[in-house]
Amino acid sequence: MTATPSPLPALGAATLLRALFKRPRRLSGVPAPRTVYTLPCIDPNQLRRYRQALGFRDEGIPLTYYYLLAQRAHVATMLDRAFPFRLPGTVHTGNALQALAEPRRDQPLVLATHVTIRPPAHDGAVVAELDTVARQDGVDVFTCKSTYLVKRGQSARRRPRQESKPLPVLGGWRLARGAGRAYARLSGDWNPIHLWTWSARLMGMKRPIIHGMHTLARACAELEQACGARILALEGRFRSPAPLGSDLVLGADLAAGSFAVGGAGRVVAEGRFRTG
Predict the structure, then answer these.
(1) Of 57, 107, 235, 268, which has the maximum CB count within 10 A?
(2) Letter string b/e over residues 7-38, b meaning 16 or more CB atoms within 10 A of that residue's CB
(3) DSSP 8-state secondary structure symbol assigned to residue 243
(4) Residue 92: CB partners within 8 Å, gap ≥ 6?
(5) Which of the four pLDDT bands, split at 50, 70 and 90, describes residue 1?
(6) CA dist., res. 124 & res. 152, Å (int)
(7) C-alpha angle 237/239/240, rounded to 5°?
(8) Are 244 and 215 in contact (CB under 8 A)?
(9) Angstrom distances, CA of residue 44 to CA of 28, 53, 245, 266
(10) Measuring CA to CA, how many Å separate 108 from each of 42, 43, 77, 135?
(11) What is the pLDDT of residues 240-259, one digit of tens each?
Protein backbone atom coordinates (compact mmCIF):
# COMPACT_ATOMS: atom_id res chain seq x y z
CA MET A 1 0.00 0.00 0.00
CA THR A 2 1.40 3.40 -1.00
CA ALA A 3 2.03 5.80 1.89
CA THR A 4 0.34 9.20 1.94
CA PRO A 5 2.91 11.86 0.96
CA SER A 6 4.22 14.15 3.68
CA PRO A 7 5.95 17.51 3.17
CA LEU A 8 9.65 17.00 2.48
CA PRO A 9 11.54 18.13 5.62
CA ALA A 10 14.28 20.71 5.26
CA LEU A 11 17.81 20.02 6.47
CA GLY A 12 19.04 22.19 9.30
CA ALA A 13 20.01 22.43 12.95
CA ALA A 14 16.86 20.64 14.13
CA THR A 15 17.64 17.71 11.83
CA LEU A 16 21.20 17.52 13.16
CA LEU A 17 19.94 17.43 16.75
CA ARG A 18 17.46 14.66 15.93
CA ALA A 19 20.26 12.68 14.31
CA LEU A 20 22.57 13.12 17.30
CA PHE A 21 19.98 11.93 19.81
CA LYS A 22 18.45 9.09 17.82
CA ARG A 23 19.09 5.70 19.42
CA PRO A 24 19.94 2.61 17.37
CA ARG A 25 17.65 -0.41 17.39
CA ARG A 26 18.26 -4.10 16.99
CA LEU A 27 17.72 -5.72 13.62
CA SER A 28 14.65 -7.71 14.54
CA GLY A 29 13.00 -8.45 11.22
CA VAL A 30 11.01 -5.21 11.23
CA PRO A 31 10.49 -4.10 7.61
CA ALA A 32 12.80 -1.31 6.52
CA PRO A 33 11.03 2.03 6.09
CA ARG A 34 9.36 3.20 2.90
CA THR A 35 8.62 6.90 2.74
CA VAL A 36 6.86 9.27 0.37
CA TYR A 37 7.49 13.02 0.52
CA THR A 38 6.31 15.98 -1.54
CA LEU A 39 8.56 18.85 -2.58
CA PRO A 40 6.41 21.91 -3.53
CA CYS A 41 8.82 23.09 -6.23
CA ILE A 42 12.47 23.37 -7.17
CA ASP A 43 14.04 26.39 -5.49
CA PRO A 44 15.33 28.60 -8.34
CA ASN A 45 17.75 30.46 -6.07
CA GLN A 46 19.30 27.27 -4.73
CA LEU A 47 19.56 25.88 -8.25
CA ARG A 48 21.26 29.05 -9.51
CA ARG A 49 23.75 29.09 -6.63
CA TYR A 50 24.44 25.39 -7.13
CA ARG A 51 25.28 25.84 -10.82
CA GLN A 52 27.56 28.77 -10.07
CA ALA A 53 29.34 27.11 -7.16
CA LEU A 54 30.01 23.79 -8.88
CA GLY A 55 30.92 25.08 -12.35
CA PHE A 56 27.84 24.23 -14.44
CA ARG A 57 27.53 26.71 -17.28
CA ASP A 58 24.15 26.10 -18.90
CA GLU A 59 20.71 26.89 -17.49
CA GLY A 60 19.55 23.29 -17.14
CA ILE A 61 19.20 21.25 -13.98
CA PRO A 62 22.52 19.47 -13.34
CA LEU A 63 22.13 15.77 -12.72
CA THR A 64 23.96 15.98 -9.39
CA TYR A 65 21.61 18.73 -8.18
CA TYR A 66 18.91 16.08 -7.88
CA TYR A 67 20.94 14.53 -5.08
CA LEU A 68 20.21 17.57 -2.91
CA LEU A 69 16.50 16.75 -3.19
CA ALA A 70 16.97 13.02 -2.68
CA GLN A 71 19.32 13.65 0.24
CA ARG A 72 16.53 15.38 2.16
CA ALA A 73 14.31 12.33 1.62
CA HIS A 74 17.16 10.00 2.61
CA VAL A 75 17.91 11.81 5.85
CA ALA A 76 14.22 11.94 6.78
CA THR A 77 13.94 8.23 6.03
CA MET A 78 16.97 7.35 8.15
CA LEU A 79 15.51 9.36 11.03
CA ASP A 80 12.38 7.21 10.87
CA ARG A 81 12.06 4.90 13.89
CA ALA A 82 11.91 1.91 11.55
CA PHE A 83 15.49 2.63 10.41
CA PRO A 84 17.59 0.80 13.04
CA PHE A 85 20.84 2.77 12.78
CA ARG A 86 22.06 6.17 13.89
CA LEU A 87 23.13 8.75 11.32
CA PRO A 88 26.36 9.88 13.05
CA GLY A 89 29.12 7.51 12.01
CA THR A 90 27.48 6.38 8.77
CA VAL A 91 29.72 6.63 5.71
CA HIS A 92 28.41 7.54 2.26
CA THR A 93 30.25 5.05 0.03
CA GLY A 94 28.58 5.49 -3.35
CA ASN A 95 25.85 7.16 -5.35
CA ALA A 96 24.06 6.54 -8.63
CA LEU A 97 21.88 9.15 -10.35
CA GLN A 98 19.83 8.99 -13.52
CA ALA A 99 17.79 11.75 -15.19
CA LEU A 100 14.66 10.43 -16.90
CA ALA A 101 12.60 13.53 -17.74
CA GLU A 102 12.88 17.30 -17.42
CA PRO A 103 10.61 18.46 -14.60
CA ARG A 104 8.54 21.62 -14.43
CA ARG A 105 10.38 23.60 -11.83
CA ASP A 106 7.33 25.35 -10.37
CA GLN A 107 5.34 22.14 -9.85
CA PRO A 108 5.48 19.60 -6.97
CA LEU A 109 7.69 16.54 -7.05
CA VAL A 110 6.87 13.33 -5.18
CA LEU A 111 9.91 11.47 -3.81
CA ALA A 112 9.34 7.82 -2.89
CA THR A 113 12.18 6.07 -1.05
CA HIS A 114 12.70 2.49 0.03
CA VAL A 115 15.54 1.05 2.08
CA THR A 116 17.41 -2.20 1.57
CA ILE A 117 19.61 -3.36 4.44
CA ARG A 118 22.11 -5.90 3.18
CA PRO A 119 23.04 -8.94 5.32
CA PRO A 120 26.19 -8.41 7.40
CA ALA A 121 29.46 -9.09 5.60
CA HIS A 122 31.92 -11.69 6.93
CA ASP A 123 33.55 -9.02 9.12
CA GLY A 124 30.23 -7.75 10.48
CA ALA A 125 29.97 -4.65 8.29
CA VAL A 126 26.44 -3.64 7.31
CA VAL A 127 25.44 -1.62 4.25
CA ALA A 128 22.14 0.15 3.65
CA GLU A 129 20.92 1.23 0.22
CA LEU A 130 18.37 4.01 -0.14
CA ASP A 131 16.58 4.14 -3.51
CA THR A 132 14.55 7.20 -4.39
CA VAL A 133 12.31 7.76 -7.41
CA ALA A 134 11.08 11.32 -8.05
CA ARG A 135 7.83 11.66 -9.98
CA GLN A 136 5.81 14.54 -11.34
CA ASP A 137 2.25 13.93 -12.54
CA GLY A 138 2.99 10.21 -12.55
CA VAL A 139 6.10 10.56 -14.75
CA ASP A 140 9.49 9.42 -13.38
CA VAL A 141 11.84 12.41 -13.35
CA PHE A 142 14.99 11.01 -11.75
CA THR A 143 16.30 8.16 -9.64
CA CYS A 144 18.92 8.32 -6.91
CA LYS A 145 20.51 5.40 -5.10
CA SER A 146 22.79 6.13 -2.15
CA THR A 147 24.86 3.46 -0.45
CA TYR A 148 25.87 3.86 3.20
CA LEU A 149 28.11 1.88 5.49
CA VAL A 150 25.92 1.94 8.60
CA LYS A 151 27.93 -0.47 10.74
CA ARG A 152 31.67 -0.90 10.52
CA GLY A 153 33.22 -4.35 10.44
CA GLN A 154 35.87 -5.71 12.73
CA SER A 155 39.41 -4.64 11.99
CA ALA A 156 41.16 -7.00 9.64
CA ARG A 157 44.08 -6.85 7.27
CA ARG A 158 42.80 -5.35 4.06
CA ARG A 159 43.47 -6.92 0.75
CA PRO A 160 45.40 -4.65 -1.57
CA ARG A 161 43.15 -3.01 -4.14
CA GLN A 162 43.80 -3.63 -7.77
CA GLU A 163 44.59 -0.23 -9.18
CA SER A 164 43.08 0.64 -12.52
CA LYS A 165 45.06 2.11 -15.39
CA PRO A 166 45.51 5.90 -15.03
CA LEU A 167 43.07 7.89 -17.17
CA PRO A 168 44.00 10.90 -19.33
CA VAL A 169 43.96 14.08 -17.23
CA LEU A 170 40.97 16.28 -18.01
CA GLY A 171 41.27 19.01 -15.41
CA GLY A 172 41.55 19.75 -11.74
CA TRP A 173 40.65 22.10 -8.91
CA ARG A 174 41.82 23.16 -5.45
CA LEU A 175 39.51 22.70 -2.49
CA ALA A 176 39.25 25.97 -0.58
CA ARG A 177 39.57 25.80 3.21
CA GLY A 178 35.94 26.86 3.49
CA ALA A 179 34.61 24.62 0.71
CA GLY A 180 32.90 22.28 3.15
CA ARG A 181 30.97 25.09 4.81
CA ALA A 182 30.07 26.62 1.45
CA TYR A 183 28.67 23.30 0.19
CA ALA A 184 26.84 22.79 3.49
CA ARG A 185 25.07 26.12 2.97
CA LEU A 186 23.98 24.90 -0.46
CA SER A 187 23.03 21.37 0.44
CA GLY A 188 22.00 21.53 4.09
CA ASP A 189 24.52 18.79 4.93
CA TRP A 190 26.17 20.16 8.08
CA ASN A 191 28.04 17.00 9.01
CA PRO A 192 30.82 18.22 11.36
CA ILE A 193 33.52 16.29 9.47
CA HIS A 194 33.17 18.77 6.58
CA LEU A 195 33.26 22.08 8.46
CA TRP A 196 36.20 22.96 10.70
CA THR A 197 39.29 21.24 12.06
CA TRP A 198 37.92 21.19 15.62
CA SER A 199 34.54 19.79 14.55
CA ALA A 200 36.17 17.13 12.37
CA ARG A 201 38.40 16.07 15.28
CA LEU A 202 35.34 15.70 17.51
CA MET A 203 34.17 13.08 15.00
CA GLY A 204 37.53 11.29 14.92
CA MET A 205 38.97 12.96 11.79
CA LYS A 206 42.37 14.68 11.75
CA ARG A 207 41.26 17.23 9.15
CA PRO A 208 37.92 18.30 7.67
CA ILE A 209 37.13 16.66 4.34
CA ILE A 210 34.94 17.68 1.42
CA HIS A 211 31.54 16.10 0.84
CA GLY A 212 31.68 13.18 -1.58
CA MET A 213 28.84 14.66 -3.63
CA HIS A 214 30.77 17.91 -4.01
CA THR A 215 33.50 15.87 -5.70
CA LEU A 216 31.00 14.13 -8.00
CA ALA A 217 29.34 17.44 -8.87
CA ARG A 218 32.64 19.10 -9.80
CA ALA A 219 33.56 16.06 -11.88
CA CYS A 220 30.13 16.12 -13.56
CA ALA A 221 30.53 19.79 -14.51
CA GLU A 222 34.01 19.19 -15.95
CA LEU A 223 32.84 16.13 -17.88
CA GLU A 224 29.93 18.04 -19.40
CA GLN A 225 32.29 20.77 -20.59
CA ALA A 226 34.64 18.21 -22.14
CA CYS A 227 31.84 16.20 -23.79
CA GLY A 228 29.78 19.19 -24.89
CA ALA A 229 26.65 17.37 -23.71
CA ARG A 230 24.52 16.94 -20.61
CA ILE A 231 25.26 13.95 -18.39
CA LEU A 232 22.11 11.89 -17.85
CA ALA A 233 23.53 9.07 -15.73
CA LEU A 234 26.40 9.08 -13.24
CA GLU A 235 27.58 6.42 -10.84
CA GLY A 236 30.38 7.11 -8.40
CA ARG A 237 32.18 5.26 -5.62
CA PHE A 238 33.96 7.14 -2.86
CA ARG A 239 37.37 5.60 -2.28
CA SER A 240 39.32 8.03 -0.07
CA PRO A 241 38.60 11.27 1.81
CA ALA A 242 39.76 14.55 0.26
CA PRO A 243 40.95 17.06 2.91
CA LEU A 244 39.97 20.70 2.52
CA GLY A 245 42.83 22.71 1.06
CA SER A 246 44.03 19.85 -1.15
CA ASP A 247 44.33 19.67 -4.94
CA LEU A 248 42.22 17.21 -6.93
CA VAL A 249 42.77 15.98 -10.49
CA LEU A 250 40.10 14.58 -12.80
CA GLY A 251 40.98 11.85 -15.26
CA ALA A 252 38.51 10.49 -17.80
CA ASP A 253 38.05 8.26 -20.81
CA LEU A 254 35.28 10.11 -22.58
CA ALA A 255 34.68 7.39 -25.16
CA ALA A 256 34.36 4.67 -22.53
CA GLY A 257 32.40 6.84 -20.11
CA SER A 258 34.71 6.33 -17.13
CA PHE A 259 36.31 8.82 -14.75
CA ALA A 260 38.42 9.03 -11.61
CA VAL A 261 39.26 11.88 -9.24
CA GLY A 262 42.59 11.68 -7.45
CA GLY A 263 44.49 13.62 -4.85
CA ALA A 264 47.76 13.16 -2.94
CA GLY A 265 48.49 9.96 -4.87
CA ARG A 266 45.17 8.32 -4.00
CA VAL A 267 41.91 7.77 -5.84
CA VAL A 268 39.22 9.87 -4.15
CA ALA A 269 36.28 8.84 -6.31
CA GLU A 270 35.73 6.88 -9.49
CA GLY A 271 32.85 5.74 -11.63
CA ARG A 272 31.03 5.84 -14.93
CA PHE A 273 28.81 8.29 -16.77
CA ARG A 274 26.52 8.54 -19.80
CA THR A 275 25.65 11.62 -21.82
CA GLY A 276 22.53 12.35 -23.80
Answers:
(1) 268
(2) ebbebeeebbeebeebeeeeeeeeebbbbbbe
(3) B
(4) 146, 147, 148, 212, 213, 238
(5) very low
(6) 7
(7) 140
(8) no
(9) 43, 14, 30, 36
(10) 8, 11, 19, 9
(11) 999 999 999 999 999 999 99
Q: Residue type for 206, please?
A: K
CB 180 within 8 A of CB 246: no
Residue 204: how many CB atoms within 10 A of its CB? Answer: 8
Does the pLDDT value for residue 137 go beyond 60?
Answer: yes
One domain, residues 25 and 126: yes
- The answer on 140 and 30 residing in a single domain is yes
Q: Strand, helix or coil at 213?
A: helix
CATH number (domain holding residue 253): 3.10.129.10
**Total structural domains in the chain?**
2
Classify 231 as helix, strand or coil.
strand
Whether the Cβ atoms of residue 79 and residue 15 lie closer than 8 Å to each other: yes
Clarify whether residues 212 and 237 are in a common domain: yes
pLDDT, average across residues 143-163: 76
Q: What length is written for the chain?
A: 276
